[in-house]
Amino acid sequence: MPYPAGQTPDVQPSPLTQNFDFTPISPPPDAADLLLLDTAAAWWAQGHPREGVLILDDRSGAITLPILHSLISEAGKPGSACARAEDAVSAVRVLADELGAERALQGNARRANLPAPVPAELPELTEQAPDAFTGVHTVLMHLPRSLETLTDWAWLIREHAAADVVVLAVGRDKHMNHSMNQVLEKHFEDVSAGRGRSKSRVLTARAPRDGVPSSAPRKNTHKVSIPGKGTTELTLCSLGATYGGTKLDPGTRLMLEAVEAHPEFPGAEYVLDFGSGNGTVSAFLTLRHPQLHVVATDHSASAVQSTQLTAEANGVADRVETVRDDALSRFESGSAEVILLNPPFHQGNAVDPGAAHRLIRAAGRVLAPGGRIYSVWNSHLKHRSVLSKEVGLTEQLARDARFTVTVSTKR
Predict the structure, then answer these.
(1) Region Disordered: what ranges (predicted)?
(2) Which domains does the chain have, with CATH numbers?
(3) In a 3-state reduction of DSSP, which class is residue 103?
């Protein structure tokens, strides 16, 4: 190690943040992005290898593009990590769970007149070495909201990265907690917190531990009882970044009960599970309706894999098709007869009904005339007016203390 355990380089504003034009980047970098870049620069200035950089969940390219620009600018110079500009692109690896982050990186790279690394696919959590993680020397990431996500990332790094890997994980002070340190300490011998700056801080993890088993995919079995129609046993699987993990979301349970009681359901050969998450809806409906096919779509790579794993665990994989997509962009207008939707109520760490409104508009576009959208939402968010405007006549099917289930019919 270039530094003894528990010690890290002094972090100051660096050429990565001072010499790069962030104007084309949208959204622009925040204080955490800039601190992460300056921290990486401090390590590289002290001789840590600059090649083999992995960037996880860069939301806009604000982390990736300054590093790429620096490597390209220095290519071929004495002491450079890259002999040619082309080598710089392969020296930086990127992997994002959300499809929107991949697209933002590609778009911002074009505006900045830079090549963009091809995003890696989310690997399975097995001992088989994935290209994105194999032999990397530096990992840069935002601390995820989910400890399960952090656990999965940490295991993949510990299992496949170079022995001298330095993991730099930045977070906003208000969103950080000691459990994050504990997750990293399970996988790395040396974990330390850097000095805070602009209400942000970097956790540094080094020295991968031996013999830490993978905890994924996670599994949990539930029983779903439908009044008058029996009980269905359902096994749910998840990878770390899948919202809700292996839990049976109570709102989704209420929607499934209402859907099964609705006399017009399914009324189609296939249904669209929009925002499939851990695959609850897809697996349940195909178990209950042996002739039904489900197309399950989500913007999260972890959710798509989780839906596939759940379908396999319940023996219905031949009738569940998974598609990674953002807001149904790959689906033709008027192409779906039935859509089920449990829209998100947050964007990142903030409650944001706008995210749900965007998905409702997308569902309304894809729904065929006379088709139906079954949706569930936290009652206080009052999505009914949006459903009525974007889709058509909206009726309430069920309501409890927290959730409302509606069916909307396309005009």
Answers:
(1) 1-24, 195-227
(2) 15-208 (3.40.50.150), 218-409 (3.40.50.150)
(3) helix
Give one DSSP letter per residue of 177-206, joined into a string: -HHHHHHHHHHEEEEEE---BTTEEEEEEE
Spell out where 173-292 has E strands. Answer: 188-193, 200-208, 218-226, 230-238, 270-274
Q: Which residues of 94-124 are buried (b: 16+ CB within 10 A; e: fewer)?
A: bbbbbbebbebbebbbeebebbbbebbebbe
Q: State both tokens at 202.
A: 């970097």
Q: Are 107 and 100 in contact (CB under 8 A)?
A: no
Please enumerate in sequence order all residues whose Cβ is within 8 A of that of 38, keeping only pairs 6 or more positions apart, or say none.
11, 12, 13, 14, 16, 17
Q: How confident is the model at residue 129 (pLDDT cuts 50, 70, 90)?
A: low
Q: pLDDT (tens digit, 9 = 90+) per residue, 185-239?
A: 999 999 999 999 999 999 999 999 999 998 878 999 999 998 888 999 999 999 9
pLDDT (0 to 100) of residue 411: 87
What is the Cα–Cα distance from 3 to 373, expressed in whole angstroms? 58
Give the integer Cα–Cα distance in Å for 41 and 29: 16
- Cα–Cα distance measured from residue 341 to residue 352, given in angstroms and rounded to the nearest whole number: 17
pLDDT of residue 126: 58
Tell which residue, 367, 372, 159, has the closest CA to residue 258: 372
| The token pair that represents 217 in the structure block | 């995919």
Q: Name the residue among 372, 284, 295 with its Cα closest to residue 328.
A: 295
Where residue 352 falls among pLDDT bands split at 50, 70, 90?
Answer: low
> Distances in Å between the alpha carbon of 147 and those of 165, 240, 267?
21, 8, 40
> In the prediction, which pLDDT does 240 show?
87
- pLDDT score of 401 more than 90: yes
CA dist list (Å): 365 to 188, 236, 288: 48, 30, 28
The more confidently predicted of residues 162 and 125 is 162
| Helix, coil or strand: residue 408 | strand
Kindly give the residue spans of alpha helices, DSSP state H, lying in 62-112.
64-74, 85-91, 99-111
